[in-house]
Each structure stands twice: as C-alpha cells, then as structure tokens.
Amino acid sequence: MKHIKYWMVSTFCFVALSTVEAQQTYWSKVEKRESTLGIADVYQKFNTPDFQLKLVKASQTIAALHPNSEPYFDFTPGERLEIRDKDSLYHLGDINLRIKDPNGIWKNYSTATSRAAVKPLEVSGNILAAANLANTLPNDIPVSVKRYYELDNDQLVMRFEITNKQNTSVEIGALGLPMVFNNILEGKSLVETHAQNVFFDPYIGKDAGYLEVKRLSGGGPALLVLPKENMAFEAYRPLLDDPTPKSIVFEGFHEWMAHSKAYAEKEWKGVEQWNKPTSLTLEPKETKSFSLKFVLSEGIKNIQETLVKEEHPVAVGVPGYVLPQDVNAQLFIHYKSDIAALEVEPKGALDVKEEDTTPSGKKKYSVQGKKWGRARLTVTYEDGVEQTINYKIIKPETEVIKDFGHFLTTEQWFDGPNDPFGRNPSAISYDYEKKEQVVQDGRVWISGLSDEGGAGSWLAAVVKQLVQPDKEEIKKLQAFVDETLWGGIQYNEGPQKYGVKKSIFYYEPDSLPKGTYSDKINYNTWAAWDHKHANDPGRSYNYPHVAAAYWVMYRLSRYHQGLVDNHPWDWYLENAYHTSVAMVEQAPYYAQFGQMEGSVFLFVLEDLKNEGLTEMATDLEERMKQRADHWRALDYPFGSEMPWDSTGQEEVYVWSDYFGYDRKAMVTLRAILAYMPTMPHWGYNGNARRYWDFLYGGKAGETSRVERQIHHYGSSLNAIPVLSHFRKKPDNLYLLKVGYGGLLGGISNITQDGFGPAAFHSYPSALKIDGISGDYGSGFYGYAVNTSSYLVKDEDMGWLAFGGNLSQKGDVVEVELTTAAKSKVFIAPKKLWLTLDAGSFKKVAYNDKTGELNLTLGSKTAHTPYAYLRVDGSDAELPFKKVRGAYQIELGKNETEIKLQ
Q1: At what angle do helices 569-586 and 599-610 cross, to 10 degrees?
Q2: Cβ 554 vs Cβ 569: under 8 Å
Q3: Which string of b and e fits 851-882 if b means at least 16 CB within 10 Å?
Q4: Confidence class of residue 24 from pLDDT cuts 50, 70 and 90?
Q5: 836/549 Cα distance (integer angstroms)
Q6: Which among 559, 465, 466, 616 has a CA at the least distance from the CA of 886?
Q7: Contact call for residues 328 and 314 (beta carbons, < 8 A)
Q8: Can you tell me the mean pLDDT for 158-175?
Q9: In sequence order, what DSSP letters do the residues of 313-376 get, joined into one string?
Q10: CA distance to 654, 730, 889, per residue, from 874 (Å)
Q11: Is 774 left (phi over 0), alpha (psi -120 to 50) or beta?
C-alpha cells in the first residue's frame, strides 16, 4: 500500500501537508528538549584496524563508526547527533536492564533515561575507553555497570561489566543493548538514502545470532554485530520509548536482548517467543561481562564466509526454513565444535536425522516437517554454545494453494444482493479474527476492491488459477469479471475507458439511504473518500492488478479447454494490453515509477508477440521502453508514493533486463539484497523490508502501526528479480537462498484453513498473523508467477533441490517436483530453464556425466489435453509442433517421457 506522495498531488493534499507538518512538529519537539548527552564537549577518537571510532566524551556513547575502507561513511546516525542529544533518545553504547526488587517487582534501569556525564576509568593495554555508568543510572540500582571499548585480536568489542553490589542475589530479567544505526531516512532524497543510510536484519538465534547492517545501495562493506560473551541473541525488542518520530521514513530502533523473561511475564505474556525467555541471577558481589564485537564483511554475499572465518556457527537450510510437509529438506551446520544435542519444540514438529559430513566439514542433516505451525530446533554444541533455528511448517504446497483458493471463493466470496456499490460478486477483504467479510472500513479501499488493500483478495483468487486451475472457482471469477471488474472497478466506456478506479466503495452518506454506513466506524478521516475521489483513475498502482487478472484469464482460455467460456482468449489479452496502456495515459505521474506486479506488463508483451499481435506489442514495448529509459537515467529509480520503497524494484529489474540495461539491473539487484537477507529463521529469510503497510493494508486497531512486517508482499515480489538473476548466474547460490526464502515466505502465513493475511507481526508482543487479508494478493501474485523448482550442484554440499525431492543413482540425479504448479524447473549445470504454459512436470532426471535430461510429464486432465513446453538454454529441437513458440505435446492417460540432450 502506497499513499503519501499520491495524496500530495490529489485533492487530499492537506493530508500530505498535515503528515509532513506532523513530522516536522515531532522533530522540532525533540530538538527543543534540553541537550543532555554532552556533545558540546570534545569527542574522543580512536583508530582500529577496521574502524574509526568516535565517542561523545561526556557519555562515552558512540558518535560515529566509520569503516576504514570508506571513511566518509558512518554506520550510526551521527549526522543527527545535535538533534538526538537528549534524554530518552538511545545511542549505540546504551544499556537497558530490568531487575527484580525485594518485593518481587521488575524495575527498569536505562543509561538513556536521564543523561549525566559518566566517570571515565583508567585504560591500559587493549582498552580504548572505559567508564563507570553510575552517574547516568538511578541511585537505587542494585548493580554497578561499567562499559569498555576494547580490541580483541584487533577487533572492536563493546563490553559491559555488571557487578552485584548487594549482599543478596539479584535477578536480571531483561538485559538489552540498543542497536542504533542510521536507518532514519527523513528529509533525504533516494540518492542520499542509498549512499548514507543502512538497514539492519537480526538473526535471533541465541549464541549463533548476529545482526547484519547494510547500506541501502547494497555496496560497500557490511557490518556484522556478533555475540562475544554472555550476549546470546534471545529477543529483538522495539524501542518504542525512543521519541525519534517513527513513520514511513523511520522504522524505529530495536535492542538486542540477551535476557527477556521480565518482558515475557508482562508485556509479552501469552505470546510464544522465538526463543525461551531467560533471566540471569548474580550472586552477591558477583561480576559478569556482556560483550558484542563489530566485524566487517567485504560485501553482503560474503557474510556467511565471514561468519565461518569468525568461527561463528553457520547453518544453511535447503530449500530454506519454510517447510512444506512433503519436502525432504536438508540442513548443513558448520562450526568448530561437535554437536552435543538437538532439541525440537514443539516435540515431534520436526524429524531431524544426521546423514554425513561434507568435504569441508559441514554436518549434514535431513529435516522433515511433521506438525503444521512454528517449530524451533535448538542445537547445543559440546563447547556449550547454543543455536536456535526457527522453522515454519506448512502443508504441501498443493494443499496450501487448494485451501487458499477455496477460502477465497467461499468464505471471502461476497455476493450480497442489492449492494449499492456494485461489489458483487467478488472475493472481498476478510477479518479472520471476527470470521467475517470486511464490507465497510474507514479506509474505503479496504472494502472497495481496489488499491492493494482492497484488490488483494480478488487478485489472489484469479492468480491462484494460474497455479492450480479449478473449474468451479473460475466460473465464479468469470461472473466477477463481467459484473464487477469490467464496468465497475474499471471504466468500460467513455473518455476514461480502461481507467481503474481508486475504490468502488466510498463514503457519501447524503447520497445513499440512511443506514448504509455503520455508526461504529469512524469515517471522519482523509481515508473516507467520497464518490468523486473514489472514482479517480489517477493511481497507477491499481492497474497491474487488473492487467494481471485479464492476463491470467487469457492464459486459462488459450492453453486449456473448457475452463473459460464468457469471452474468447483475445478479449482478455487485448484488455490486458489496453489496461497497461491506460496506466501510462491516465495515471502518468506514478507510472514513471516501478509498479508492484509490474512484471505482468512484460508477460503481456511476450504473449502479444507470441500471438502475432504486432501492432499492440510494438506499442506496448515502446511505452515500456520510455519508462525504462527514464529509470536508466536515474541513480536509484525506486521511488513511489513513498520517499523510499521496496516494491518498484521488481518491475525496474525486469524491464532493465529486457532492454539490456545490465548496469541498472545490477544496481536494482544490489538494492534488493540490501533489504532482503538469508539467515536461519523463517521469518527473516528472504523477508524484503516493509514496515508501514499495517497502517494502510492491515487490521485497524492496536496492531495498525509502523512495524517490521514478516513476509509482506514485498518478499515474493522481490524474489522475482532475485531468482531471475540466479538463472543468469547459477554459480551464485546466495541468490537462490535469498530468492527461494522470499518465494516460500510468500505463502508461509496462509492458515491451515486457507486464509491469507496481510503479513505476520514481528513485535515480540504479537508474533502472529495480521487480522485481515488486506494487500496479500500482491504477494500471492509474486508466488504464482515465480513458483519453480531448482536443481543445483554445490562444490561442497553436493546436489541440492529447491522445490522438489532429490534422489541419486550413479550419475543420474532425479528430482520429484513438490511445488503446487509443477510447471517450471531450472537445471543449473546446463543453465536450462524449462517452463510449461499448460501441463505439469512430475519429475526430471539429469545425467551429470552425459548431460542427458529426462522429463516426465503428468497425464492429461479434463481441461488440459496438451502440454506446452518452452525450452530456454538449449538449441536441441524436440519432435513436436511449435505453437506460439512452445512445443505442443499431446498428453495421454499415463505419463509422458521426453528426452533432452
């Protein structure tokens, strides 16, 4: 969901102004606070082999952290130090504690709450700076806290030394270190943010955990924050008490928590955490150290090899950490110490078996998901180090997609008589917590069948048919096209023909019967568009949804028999073309940016060419080239309605790649990798950054907030360029891990009964799916057009299958496909990309010695008597007729075998 800049050019410009003014007001309030950090005094500066470290002398918090390789770049928000030098604003070097008092009550202590100059300590040897923090902590704190910046084997370490001052034991129920890096984008251009700002991603994996800090450009060295002593990464808490204004330009800060029991008992009560919450007991006069070290990785893709170099536990899951129950997954673990024990929670959720050891010494395990839901694997090493790996177990993909389609066309199917807004029939937004359709919402698009937040459900229902066609569902969708989409959501006549409305639900009580609108919903906001503004066709982001619907219906009509009968195939393809053109003509301002699902325009173009519709194809290609030329001229062409966004990259990449703008495609890919990591945690593996759409596409109420979203639609959309680039560079396994994490992340939140939520809440007070369907349809589009299987051979880990189960006999490697569509497979050693417009692969067998490939196609079905095979990467000719560039293969009652040399 993207709105802010759009408001500025609409008649709702006062909303944008008020938003900007509100931000300025918040910042001015922060600026007017009394300066307490002590930045008026001199700074302390230190050089280490990796960094230039700058400390505020009075507080000894970190004022800047420059990598020596790029000394003008700062990982911290040091540029805002003069504004953020106040009480309660966190800095790198602060510490938060929650300690139980004699009455059994948890009490908070923080070095940030009430600033005062700390007392420097004498330093020697490898210690760069040190201080007693007593002055900036309350007098009644039962422990003393000292902080040290020191070198250990030439690496920068930040260490806290905590001593129990009392003659009785003390329980510390929360210990956290604020991770304050420069993710404040406020007031910056896209060029500035990509050059100056960072995003950071947590692997909340206990002793094996770490934090990745990466520049938005994806360039330069990446910073890794690693646990050194007693700083297991147990939880990741949002610092909601920091008054730095959170918004679409600032996600907020979090803290690395080594202990979190006190929060689990109060604010997070009843929520299953990523790790077991713990506390620490200090005996009388006992002292313990808690330290993190700062390490540079040469680049983002070098992070795992840097971890190995640092002798940090490294886990690699294949195909990832979202496990369909019919997939035989693998787990590779690399660490200097042997494994002492494996524990699965809930018990029996995973079946983990040791297999063998790779040439480099990685331990190899087979992993199979047994019980639907979240699961945690705890690996305990003989040296006492503990690592947790979080999995999400889902049904087999075929069942997930079947359930999803059924839910959309039953529970979410709106066909109420006499709807004054013309929304019936359609799949409509759904509130899973209330188990009811969302027919009214103060944000009119949610129930208005347009925008990502309203179009999401019907878009998903249509695109599901691309993966798994169902005749009865398609029958309902044909009615949706004829009665709701064409002439309703989309103009079908007049000067605005093919234009797409912002919403067909609107708020105009004077023009409709009394009682039309609920008196329990607040319609007195900017989001309650009236009829005129709801009918506005000027929002470009609404067009790909409609184009995608037409394109899918074209494919169903053209490549299957008897599935679509309300219009001929060319009606759908031509409507897809005209919708694509209308976006450029009727919504030109935002059409200059990449659109979410914008890859559909390329699919439309390819099919226009396949059909020989040359005039339309030439016109569409030229219009898209003009857009791509514009992007080519920009440094970072990822604008949108938001100052920074993670959804335009998909389309920018596919068109840059199509037109041969390789440099721009690489700039785009690097930017994606900066906010889309791979790590042993299903929630963050392949999770493209998004943090504001719970406001615009999520459920209204307490969870409508700025919050890192887990597998919002950006995950699967951004997987499109990542996997596309992997097929160009199949030796880069990093891309496959990231891309497949995003692909399966795109369906990871679908419930057991088939409901698709907007995203999963990352706050430890929630850790649950959002309550409504919202804008999930865009994410499902990303999964549907990109679902595929991959066969690769890694030099150390051997043969690997993503999207299938692998077996090997001699030189022959066989993969039985497990994806729902079973329509695409990539054979990495041959750079061979095989796709089916209709039909399905059951399995593929590759002879590593001869290069021969055997394809096994599934039998014919009532609506699919032919398979249509496209072969990219081989000049070999098959003995079948070519139709629209694909081999037409007649299917039989049994499987069909095809050989490719």
Answers
A1: 130
A2: yes
A3: eebebbbbebeebbebbbbbbeebeeeeebee
A4: low
A5: 19
A6: 559
A7: no
A8: 98
A9: -EEEEES-SEEETT--EEEEEE-SSPEEEEEEESTTSEEEEEEEE-TT--EEEEEEE-SSEEEE
A10: 22, 16, 18
A11: left
Separation between Cα atoms, residue 151 and residue 128, nearest integer Å: 7
Three-class DSSP category at 431: strand
**Average pLDDT for 291-313:** 97
Predicted local confidence at residue 38, as pLDDT: 82
Nearest Cα to Cα of residue 831 among 799, 798, 887, 793: 793
H-assigned helices in 641-763: 649-658, 662-675, 693-696, 713-728, 733-745
Query: Residues 554, 555, 557, 561: what is their CA dihedral angle, to the nearest 10 degrees?
Result: 180
Query: Six-digit token pair at 663?
Result: 């440099």
Residues paired with 120 in a beta bridge: 131
pTM of the model as a whole: 0.96
User: Does 252 have pLDDT greater than 90?
Assistant: yes
Q: What is the DSSP letter of 490?
A: B
Task: Evaluate whether 823 touches 784 at the Cβ level (below 8 Å).
Answer: no
The pLDDT tens digits of the residues spanning 499-549 come to: 999 999 999 999 999 999 999 999 999 999 999 999 999 999 999 999 999
State the Cα–Cα distance between residues 190 and 594, nearest whole angstrom: 14
C-alpha span between 469 and 463 (Å, rounded):
9
Q: Which two tokens stand for residue 828?
A: 């990495």
H-helix or E-strand containing 477? helix 471-480
3-state DSSP call for residue 683? coil
Asked whether the beta carbons of 445 and 453 are under 8 A apart, the reply is yes
Tokens coding 129: 């700076």
Q: Would you place residue 691 in the very low, low, confident or very high pLDDT band (cuts 50, 70, 90)?
A: very high
Look at residue 16 and tell me whether its pLDDT is greater than 50.
no
- The contacts of residue 479 (CB under 8 Å, 6+ apart) are 425
Contact predicate 441/700, CB 8 Å: yes
Write the CB contacts of 671 (distance below 8 Å, at least 6 apart in sequence): 194, 216, 217, 218, 636, 638, 649
Phi and psi, residue 648, nearest 5°: -75, -20
Question: CA–CA separation, 747 vs 401, rounded Å?
Answer: 9
**Cα–Cα dist 473/462, whole Å:** 9
Give the per-residue pLDDT at 216. Answer: 96
What b/e string do you get for 332-369 counting C-beta neighbours within 10 Å, with b at 16 or more?
A: bbbbeeebeebebeeeebbebeeeeebeeebbbbebbb
- Model confidence at 180, pLDDT cuts 50, 70, 90, reads very high
- The predicted-structure confidence for 464-480, as pLDDT tens digits, reads as follows 999 999 999 999 999 99
Q: For the range 61-70, what are the long-range contacts, defined as Cβ-Cβ under 8 Å and sequence gap of 24 or more?
A: 61/37, 61/91, 61/92, 61/93, 61/94, 62/91, 62/92, 62/93, 63/39, 63/91, 65/92, 65/223, 65/294, 67/220, 67/221, 67/223, 67/296, 69/220, 69/221, 69/296, 70/220, 70/221
- Among residues 676, 702, 673, 678, the alpha carbon closest in space to that of 690 is found at 676
Measured N-to-C along each axis, helices 471-480 and 451-467 cross at an angle, to the nearest 10 degrees, of 140
Name 330's bridge partners.
318, 366
- 3-state SS class at 901: coil
Structure tokens given for 343: 């524990």
Radius of gyration of the chain (CA): 28
The SS3 assignment for 236 reads strand
State the chain's mean pLDDT as an integer.
95
- CB of 455 within 8 A of CB of 502? no
Task: Tell me the pLDDT band of 3, cut-offs 50, 70 and 90.
Answer: very low
The average pLDDT across 746-759 equals 98
**pLDDT at residue 18 in the model:** 39
